[in-house]
Design goal:
Strand order of the largest sheet: 8-7-6-9-12-11-13
GO molecular function: glycosyltransferase activity
Largest sheet: 7 strands, mixed
Number of strands: 19
Number of helices: 10
Number of domains: 3
Radius of gyration: 23 Å
InterPro entries: HPAT/SRGT1-like
Length: 497
């Protein structure tokens, strides 16, 4: 269960900053051998598979669920087999169990991975666990490419943690996305496997919308569209903000604002030869630079569009990646190809800055939502389990960067997915270790306001991700380690270590 702490500030008048410790599921465990593992007694309660409490709330309550673990490496770790959560008033509520489409959600979330991708099981667990914790609705499908029969059989035995989690298997499209093409570029699997899914999914995709997101994504709010809510604070393009809505319908989509990464993309003047290579004889050759900048060029995940629109553009999206790789080996060719395909089919995107933020360094022009962590926030690195949730976090963090206090990312403490050991999911492997709480106090003591803002958001992200990963790992190991597991937080993420 993802543990959350609210409210966001210890200085808010009239609010009680207290943590409610909920440990009603008492655990019968026996102490184990000298390996430092917890051995679950056969009479222990079953693992709690009910819905998790949501993180996003406007209430002043704090929420904390019970997780018990050793605080010293030499101690025997005591790990609960089950625990109960009190649903505090004001916390976002959701039904505890849905089957298939009984929640009537019209949004189908998909993310793609290769079968042999590093840390696949960790990433898929964190993705599901955090989505369940915030009360996300709608089926989630993991598209897996290139699995052997044996790998497929093993994958289907892996535990799931989201109420409607599905898997779809496809061939690998790298290095052969099309006949006669040999190009070792794994992002081919994103559009080509998505096309396979849209064509061959069982059951068929019958939701009105498809959400395409990356696997390295952790949820802090449920993703919702077509609500009619005022979203103008999250939009920073050139349109009249009064006209900006969260509407997704045929011809109109929503995506995370990646303008600070991509600029004008292949619609820019300097990339005209690339555009001509892809678009000669197609509508995208006539897209103006102004329209490209507003609706197409800066699109990033999550992408939310109607299923019919995705079906319309998927062939061009796939083929444009192949054509683009003829011209450049840039790793982001797949993203540029998506933007050009959307432009060719006239699918206008509203770019929002709060759907899947990547790093505070990309805050320029408010293109990413990194103004939600204040100096008054409770120290997010103190409590080893509870995630400190600010008042208005993004929907999710796309954790593709390094997050930490120090400027030199080759030293000091950082959260970086590539630094997490491959064996972290093994029963004997320790959990991640939080950085010292002084990371936060040092960050908010920086005199320069811009640097201070960046570093406090980095440290919040660093400590929050570590806690969420640890909670997801505990949930995973409860299901995969019947004789117990190591709950000590001892794996340090530091510099090049």
């Amino acid at each position: 269960m993802m543990t959350a702490v609210r409210p966001s500030s210890v200085r808010e008048n009239g609010r009680v900053v207290a943590v409610a410790l909920v440990v009603f599921g008492l655990v019968v465990v026996s102490f184990l051998n000298y390996y430092g593992m917890a051995r679950s007694a056969s009479s222990s309660a079953a693992i709690d598979t009910e819905a998790l409490p949501a993180l996003h709330s406007s209430s002043p309550h704090h929420l904390k669920t019970g997780i018990i673990a050793s605080s010293h490496a030499g101690d025997v770790n005591v790990v609960p087999a089950a625990h109960t959560v009190i649903d505090l008033q004001g916390v976002h509520k959701r039904s505890q169990l849905y089957q298939a489409n009984e929640d009537l959600s019209q949004m189908h979330i998909v993310f793609s991975m290769s079968c042999t991708q590093g840390k696949r099981r960790l990433l898929q667990t964190v993705f599901q666990f955090s989505a369940m914790a915030v009360g996300q609705k709608g089926p989630i499908t993991q598209i897996l490419s290139g699995c052997t029969d044996a790998e497929r059989e093993a994958v289907m035995k892996e535990p799931t943690f989201y109420y409607d989690f599905r898997r779809h298997f496809t061939p690998s499209y790298s290095p052969h996305p099309e006949p006669g093409i040999t190009d070792d570029y794994t992002p081919y699997n994103k559009p080509f496997a998505l096309r396979h899914f849209l064509t061959h999914a069982d059951p068929p995709v019958n939701q009105e919308m498809v959400v395409l997101v990356d696997a390295d994504f952790v949820w802090f709010k449920p993703l919702e569209v077509n609500t009619g809510r005022d979203i103008s604070k999250y939009y920073h393009g050139k349109r009249d903000k009064a006209t900006v809505t969260d509407t997704v319908k045929d011809g109109y989509a929503i995506a995370q604002d990646w303008y600070n990464y991509m600029g004008a993309g292949w619609f820019g003047e300097g990339n005209r030869p690339k555009l001509e290579h892809l678009c000669t004889g197609k509508p995208c050759i006539n897209v103006t630079q102004e329209d490209a900048a507003e609706y197409f060029a800066g699109t990033g995940p999550p992408y939310i569009m109607t299923t019919s629109d995705m079906r319309r553009m998927i062939d061009d999206y796939s083929h444009f990646v192949v054509l683009g790789r003829n011209l450049t080996d840039d790793w982001m060719v797949e993203m540029y190809a998506y933007a050009v395909a959307a432009g060719s089919h006239g699918i206008k995107h509203t770019l929002m800055n709060n759907l899947g933020v990547t790093h505070p360094q990309f805050v320029d022009g408010d293109r990413e939502h990194w103004k939600f962590v204040s100096d008054e926030l409770m120290n997010p690195c103190t409590d080893p389990y509870s995630v400190v949730i600010p008042e208005d976090p993004p929907v999710g963090v796309h954790y593709c960067q390094k997050y930490g206090f120090v400027q030199d990312d080759k030293s000091g403490y950082h959260y970086y997915k590539y630094k997490i050991p491959e064996d972290i999911i093994e029963c004997k492997a320790p959990l991640l270790k939080l950085p010292p709480a002084t990371e936060w106090t040092d960050a908010i003591a920086i005199k320069d306001s811009a640097k201070r803002a960046q570093k406090r958001h980095e440290v919040w992200t660093e400590c929050s991700l570590i806690k969420i990963v640890n909670q997801a790992l505990l949930k995973l190991k409860q299901t995969t380690c019947p004789t117990g597991f190591n709950a000590f937080q001892g794996t340090e993420l530091k510099g090049n270590k």
